[in-house]
Automatic annotation (TrEMBL):
EC number: 3.2.1.55
Stated name of the protein: non-reducing end alpha-L-arabinofuranosidase
Keyword GTP-binding included in the entry's annotation: no
Swiss-Prot/TrEMBL catalytic activity: Hydrolysis of terminal non-reducing alpha-L-arabinofuranoside residues in alpha-L-arabinosides
Keywords on record: Carbohydrate metabolism, Glycosidase, Hydrolase, Signal
GO biological process: L-arabinose metabolic process; polysaccharide catabolic process
UniProt similarity note: Belongs to the glycosyl hydrolase 51 family.
InterPro entries noted in UniProt: Alpha-L-AF_C, ASD1_cat, GH, Glyco_hydro_b
Record domain Alpha-L-arabinofuranosidase C-terminal: where: 296-486
Broadest EC class assigned to this enzyme: hydrolase
Subunit structure: Homohexamer; trimer of dimers.
Amino acid sequence: TSAQNKASFITDSTGPVINRDIYGHFAEHLGNCIYGGFFVGDTSHIPNSSGVRKDVIAALKNLNIPNLRWPGGCFADTYHWKDGIGPKAKRPTIVNTWWGNVTEDNSFGTHDFLNMCEALGAEPYLSGNVGSGTVQELSDWVQYTNFKGKSPMSDLRAENGRATPWQVKYWGIGNEAWGCGGNMRAEYYADEFRKYATFMSSSGGRLFRIASGANSSDYNWTDVLMRNIPKNLIEGIALHHYAVIRWEGKGPAVKFNEEQYFATMRSALFMDTLVTRHSAIMDKYDPQKKIALVVDEWGGWYDVEEGTNPGFLFQQNTMRDAVLAGSTLNIFNNHADRVRMANLAQAINVLQSVIFTKGDTMVLTPTYHVMEMYKVHQDATLIPMRINTNDYTYGNEKLPAVSVSASKDKSGVTHITLVNIDANKAQDITVDTKNTGYKNVSGRILTSAKLQDYNSFSRPDRIKPAAFTGAALKNGALAVKLPPFSVVMLTLQ
Ligand code: AHR
């Protein structure tokens, strides 16, 4: 153990509510995410409801999954939604050009996705096609999913078996417009956005239109969009950032060394700088913080597992990913005033997945368990905190070892989530809660013997939350001992 870390609650003003949508997920037509992951078809021997795996539905419901983004990613700007409605046998096929050039039979389409979101109790977040689509196509999609009265699209919806609209609120207008979504300049995309957003109208509740956001530290992108898009057309602006060591040679998902672990965490923790700086730009144009920053793709990205299709982006999920998820979610919580939605990429069988499936079995990854431990923060009120932390050093470089966030839920219970990213040392931390009213602390911890440990189909429960006994309350001061690479959730009552 090294010297004492210190944190304290800042209680002179109340923090913002942590929007539950920060805990969102992402389903892309990529590798085995949709087919075999979410969807097996209603003739499968795997237990399903309208073709969607029942084990997956139960697991995601247990996370209180707030929203799900679909159908991409890069795939979204090649997707024509009308290919995925009506009798399945008559649906055309397309080639999934971004992801392995596999044939997409469109058997999982709009009805399948939106009905699945209803089963999950999650808000759907539809990613519209700007790159290769048309304004008419996107405005038709809105009418198809949301229009209550009689119209060409609502009639078609009813013909396809759904009379009442789903009332989809969240709409992405293109994806990575600076890259796979069309290689546009920010100025050009801002104009495209204005045009698309103008023709999206809903007879039901208000739409929440999200602009395709910056690639990581492209601050100019956010500036140009904020300057050029009128406030009445936009509700959110996205940001994508993956924790990656370097794009050419990302390193293995499992057999990484400490240098690679350190580099991944440096990239992951950079999220704090990104969110701070993009928010500051947004503040210039929107000081009342009406427009949300939506981190609709985040997570660790490594080399694909050997012997798997490189176009499917399948990677294993270890304790490194758990620590990465816990640290990133602490960052989002602490920026809840502006970050009001986020989507981990991708839910099943792809990048930093929460679930892996194989045949009729399923594995919950370490990242799943972090999401489950952190669900207590959903819609709770942030308690802003100050922290003085030791460094986690590797060679001549250093990173803050401990991260923390806290919230008070609607029943008055306080939760604190702490992460120690140090690969070698335990960290002692005292937390001044400015409140002697707490009588009891209990906790849960996620850790394992090695950073490289993961849950496999043969050992699915190797890593799972356990009761945590390393926290003690004395006169309102909380003393916690965090083992190396651990994620801890404390409940104070
Ligand atoms: O998550 C994989 C891909 O990464 C997404 O499709 C794209 O938006 C991003 O570049």
